[in-house]
């Protein structure tokens, strides 16, 4: 986001002195003059430059009657012209989909889904996994399902937060990644600490700052005690009830079929449909492969493309967070198009210090792995803002700008970032190339998004009831 | 203040709504001035303050509790905690409200979504937990964060703050019977479904927070705060989270009181929180304050349409003092406004509601949230906690209840109870209790001239 940085008194008065509501006098704005405090150094209202409002808040749109994006759309909130585009909670209705079909026919651009031999996919397991995924009772105080952080219409991530917030509001240090195409990941989590989807579930279920269950046994018992699960595990797992293994297998099965491909890019690149993407997007792909060197980590193969090498790299961002200087004051939005500054010292009074994050090093204990994170896939990337392990980049423009500057090779005190990938260098991309690259990244949305969201919406959210 | 002046007319207006039993009660009258007009009030000396208190991990029993403080100066326990009822869990205790007969106090948990119902009439000295509603979310169809529990005749209307689908700000009003049975959910109007409401400006965010009824105008007014993710998260982390900061309410909604249908959605940017309506007949207006932009907002009707106007700054908005609770004096002359971050209380002269002027200011603590005033405006009680993860950290995290006497010019502290030292937790919402409400033998002198202050 770029701002002119000019103090504009008209906007000031607009923010604070207009008469809201149905006042007939629409022009109070002009008559009112700003007051002194707006000149305070803490409080400056800045005018955004034209039409730059792509942010994590997205720009919700509708495909096949299904709204893609947050039901509470905040696109353009940075400007005084912001208008809501909200949908009712009751509009969350959908139709169950035949998710398992992808197993025989992976979408264009994606390889066959790797399925562990001891957990073959079945409809029963997928259905059970889906039910568990949306069940808020799987947390210590019945308030957190997996889907509260991996929200289906928000790209199975959350547009509403840079970093996830869990049980009792406890802070997470990282952004919730998408569940789309996790089937293809060779290691899970930003720091690659987990190996399989089957194992992964115990991370969030037991983490104090996620779902906060106190033991595996407690989780199993809780599920056993819920009457609406009666017989479901047994039916899906040859008579076996809920246990550590079947829980993992069920949740993994649902997540595994959330693959998403056959994007416009796939139809052009693999399907040879000449007009599937625009000239501009094609130029963008050329930057992606060429000058931008993006493809060295966000891989594209001969027949398929995962847009990740499943490897660990230091892009400079983690280093910047740990070793860089924090600004003394930060600008923040306090109402649509209205900004104020908050001093670091003031923030410290009401907040805990940020939780440290050294990336892959925490898993290997090898200093060479400091600030390395796993390359994420870029499929559906336009739907999964905000970006990076800490959610600190709100839109794709921010990400490209970061790469264009070449990461962070040393901090303000000349402390070197020795583990930064040699592939991350100042790129010298022109405005036009940046624009093309952005357009290309928006061609990576899978063709089944609406179907998957609708299928998720057809699943009841599990909440405490006294109906039994 | 002349009470007589404004109690004469309203009973007739109220008659269809007010249960006979309420009128029959011989009342004393306490933040009495924020009570539902359908409720009998304490206009004399209150005997008790019930403090809905947040449990703190590692302090005492670590759970939420309803704390009863004896506040009658004639009592030997004056200024002391005389009862504490733990409810289990940290539910993000927040607001509470009586049923219209004032026999039960409903207290909500913004995190666990439980509603705890306390009996305050059997023994007013002991608010006792008698029922817990634990299926609020499933019953209501996905409403999260029961906030204001507000009395309508025979009913409790509960504002939500969030939902079970994205933990964002879209939410609803939920109606229950006094005995705790779910009746209905009224979703806040959203752009795709305004439900017949007129969207007067740019916003229809579907957010909620507080509610007040103005029976004389057949309206209910609601304000808008933020969803679960924000109100539960570390305040400092939120200020640094650019996406989270876009998720605050910018609207107020005018509802038809009888049909419970939204009539108008008004733009009120900057998170309008508490709503207080004037009491005198003919004073058909209400105030709210915006948390982030520090404005006093006047809500009034003009040619049959409601409008919201920013009428005064609170402190220096640039410094984000964070206005939180407000309290209107029963003669509509003064509005108390607390600002959380600087720990101050401010009095605004609102005799001209279009032109509030600050006339007094006092430091209450390192932080302050709630203010509750006795009906006669002479006693002002203050507590400190805003939200479990928003309160100041370390030594700035004051947690107390303090009583001040206000003589119209100056405030003098009467007592303070340190909720840390007492191992209780974070002191939040206060509600007043009195023996005489229930025709019980007060252990102390009765109020001199009991008056039912019904208004509108």
Concise structural overview:
With 468 residues, chain A is of the alpha+beta class. In chain A, 27% of the residues lie in helices and 7% in strands. Chain A has 16 helices and nine strands.
Biggest sheet statistics of chain A: 2 strands, antiparallel
Q: Which second-level CATH architecture of chain B applies? A: 7 Propeller
Mean pLDDT of chain B: 91
CATH topology of chain B: Methylamine Dehydrogenase, Chain H
Instruction: Provide a count of the helices of chain B.
Output: 6
Poorly predicted parts of chain B: 1-30, 443-456
What is the CATH superfamily classification of chain B?
YVTN repeat-like/Quinoprotein amine dehydrogenase
Uncertain stretches of chain A:
1-54
Overall shape of chain A: it is: globular
Walkthrough of the structure:
The complex is a heterodimer of chains A (468) and B (456). Chain A is α+β, with helices and mostly antiparallel strands. Among the domains of chain A are: 101-261 and 448-457, Cytochrome Bc1 Complex, Chain D, domain 2 (Orthogonal Bundle); 274-321 and 361-441, Cytochrome c-like domain (Cytochrome Bc1 Complex, Chain D, domain 2, Orthogonal Bundle), CATH 1.10.760. Chain A has 16 helices and nine strands. Chain A has helices spanning 9-17, 28-31, 123-133, 197-200, 202-206, 216-225, 232-236, 244-256, 264-269, 279-289, 317-323, 344-350, 361-364, 396-405, 431-441, 449-457, and strands at residues 3-7, 19-21, 46-48, 61-63, 66-68, 312-313, 329-335, 338-343, 373-374. A two-stranded antiparallel sheet of chain A has the order 1-3. A two-stranded antiparallel ribbon of chain A has the order 4-5. The longest helix of chain A is centred in the middle third of the chain and has 13 residues, at 244-256. The radius of gyration of chain A is 24 Å and the shape is globular. The termini of chain A are far apart. The model of chain A is unreliable at 1-54 (pLDDT under 50). By secondary structure, chain B is mostly beta strands. Chain B has one domain (27-438): 7 Propeller (Methylamine Dehydrogenase, Chain H), CATH 2.130.10.10. Chain B is built from six helices and 31 strands. Chain B has helices at 3-7, 10-14, 20-24, 136-140, 228-232, 235-239; strands at residues 48-54, 65-70, 80-86, 93-98, 104-109, 115-119, 128-133, 143-144, 149-152, 155-159, 162-163, 172-177, 182-187, 198-199, 211-214, 219-222, 251-256, 262-267, 272-277, 286-290, 295-302, 305-313, 323-328, 334-339, 344-349, 357-363, 371-373, 379-383, 400-406, 411-418, 426-433. In chain B, the strands form eight sheets. Chain B has a five-stranded mixed beta sheet, with no helix packed on it. In chain B, a hairpin with a 4-residue loop joins strand 29 (400-406) and strand 30. Chain B starts with a helix and ends in a 23-residue tail after the last strand. In chain B, 65% of the residues are buried. Classes of the chains: A alpha+beta (468), B mainly beta (456). Chains A and B meet through helix 1, strand 2, strand 7, strand 8 and helix 12 of A and helix 4, helix 5, helix 6, strand 18 and strand 21 of B. Strand 2 (19-21) of chain A pairs antiparallel with strand 22 (305-313) of chain B.
